[in-house]
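Protein modeling request. Please complete all fields; requests missing the sequence field cannot be processed.
Requester role: graduate student
Desired output: 3D structure, token encoding
Chains: 1
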Amino acid sequence: MGRMSAPLYNTQILRLATNIPHQARLAGPQATVSKRSPICGSRVTVDVAMDGEGRVAALGQEVRACALGQASAALMGGHAIGRSPAELAAARDALAAFLAGERDDPGDWPGLEIFLPARPHAARHPSIRLAFEAVAEAAAQALAEPVR
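Delivered output (148 residues):
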């Protein structure tokens, strides 16, 4: 008998989806980026404020997404504080390559291996990538902004 593939929505993903950190928008973000998946309509909006070292000091997010998008936002939100734009871009790119089957591991961002069962489901990849795309872009924008 062939091995059954792991379920797309497992307990770990559903638990993460109901426990998303930083779910309050920031009052005065340095940058805000919204990303939407046209396939499923998932949308993630991320606010960031950076510290003097160019790392994320504060994060806010509004997540209107499927369970996979919510779980991804939870993993992003759990570990984005203290990260530089370059680290966030590397995490975004590693996740995209992992989902596409171009690399065997999702990089060093904690927890992303839970998306292994989603790899054959290309239509789900955009919603999984949303939070990481939004935070990487917001952090880069925040640093590019001139200090007022």
